[in-house]
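Example 4.3 (complexes with small molecules)
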Amino acid sequence: MDQKKRCKGLMERLRDGETVICAEGYLFVFERRGYLTAGSYVPEVVLEHPELVRQQYEEFVHAGSDVVLAFTYYAHREKMALIGREDDLQRINKHALRMAREVADQTGTLMAGNISNTNLFVDSVPNYREKVWQIFKEQIEWAVEAGADFIVGETFSDFGEALMAVKACKEFAKDIPCVVTMAAQQGQVNGKPTTVDGVDYVDAFNKLAEAGADVVGLNCARGPATMLPVMEEAVKVCKAPLAAVPVMYRTTKENPNFMSSKDPLTGESLFPVNLDCIGCNRQDIHDFGKRVQELGIKYVGLCCGNSAHLTRSLAESLGRKPPASRYSADLNKHWLLGHDDKLPSVGQESKTKYAPKLTKVEK
Ligand SMILES: [Zn+2]
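Answer. The structure with zinc ion bound is encoded below.
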């Protein structure tokens, strides 16, 4: 393993009060781009088109991510078996991790290994705990071997599985920090959202932290609008650093999870391939960034539906200027909206003709 001088670690940053941005959402990115099948959602693109994965790592860093999250999400044994590619299990993991380490080293960012829900954490699967444990073990060990700076365990709907993930990180990643986040489904007890196995989220976060998780919180499932209320409760009582990594969709009080999102025009279900019509825009993400900052949530990111322009908006909302900010909107140079001296005079007449339709004119 290359032992080059590494950048400031995750826990040091959090201890110093810095916010850490982690761009996620690779599955949906590659599905949209035509390199990954919706349904099975296995990141075969890592093996078939590694250059695109490397480029996506770089693009997210360019847009402001502090972390290169190795694209091993759903590259686990259960998923690889589902598509008949179990033989490629080790290769896909190592390849995704190696590229992530290289990009992190080249860009001075952190590299994180990635484990997730296994879809096996159900009583009906014989020996399911052993199977889940084995999946965590092998993926964590590959991540450690590849020099991961920390491990992300994510999208757990069951508290029981999230707790196992924390324990597996403690056992197999030793002193490497772990960020463990849950996907908030629709479950409720006494009007409060709970995990699928009935644990109040705030309790779940505290218990995961007690078990050794370094950062706890939510990712995926909910958009900013329905994730923030849960996090607002969490900041009141949780002592561990918190994470908020929403999906980039406008989830609602009626349908807080994107799996139940409906088309506002037709009422049809949108998950998972027709969510575009309720996508968050840059302003939504800017507002989300401002709010998490007010709440003191220090680990933030964007999950399904993410793309570079939204990551840049998040970074800029935190006062950052990532390399992509060089190309942030400069509407003062827009032929119709702008007032730049060098603009050819369009004439007040034509401006008034179009301008009423435009909501905002940058000065
Ligand atoms: Zn997601």
